[in-house]
Amino acid sequence: MFITSNGSASFRHPSIAPHKQKHWTVVTCALEGPWYLVVYDVTCRKGRRVSQTSLVGCDEALVEMLETMDATDIRGMGRLDRHHCSGLSWGLKWINSVWKPGRNEARVVGPLLFRFDAEPMVRDALLRPVGVEPERRLLYAAGDPCKGSEG
User: What would the pLDDT profile of 16-64 be if each residue is shown by its tens digit?
Assistant: First the structure.
């Protein structure tokens, strides 16, 4: 899925690096699917807090990461989608909220749902609009963690 190359050290969030810290500074994408940027704070040497960014390559891995991280550590999240037009390019959309779907809707909508900045609707991983479902669980909300929790 990607090729890694060692470089200068970075500190990852403890939920995704429970043992010795490891790092990759080069990631080569081999898939056409979306990638997610997760920006979060982590404690490193002498208790100093620094910002780190992880590149997440699949929806299920993003759900797992969000379920194990402390929501107060997350500073922002974006989605990179490949655009197929003259001259290949990627587009970044900032994510306002992420939900894990309810049991009954997960089979239809996939492992997670989004609300993007400047959009009122909730979308599935294929970016199709979806209706309201009461069993959803909020995994991330930009700013106030209580904002937008209804989905």
Answer: 555 555 555 566 666 678 899 999 998 877 888 888 888 888 899 999 9
Q: What is the 3-state secondary structure (H, E, C) of the chain?
A: CEEEECCCCCCCCCCCCCCCCCCCCEEEECCCCCEEEEEEEEECHHHCEEEEEEEECCHHHHHHHHHHCCHHHEEEEEEEEEECCCCCEEEEEEEEEEEECCHHHHHHHCCCEEEECCCCCEEECCCCEECCCCCCEEEEECCCCCCCCCC
Q: How many domains does the chain have?
A: 1
Asked whether residue 41 is domain-assigned, the answer is: yes
Asked if residue 92 is part of any domain, the answer here is yes
Domain with 78 in it: 33-141
- Residue 23 belongs to some domain of the structure: no
Tokens 């700013």 -> residue: 143
Q: Please name the amino acid found at residue 124.
A: D
Which residue reads 């239809």 in tokens? Answer: 108
Residue 91 lies in a domain: yes
pTM, 2 dp: 0.73
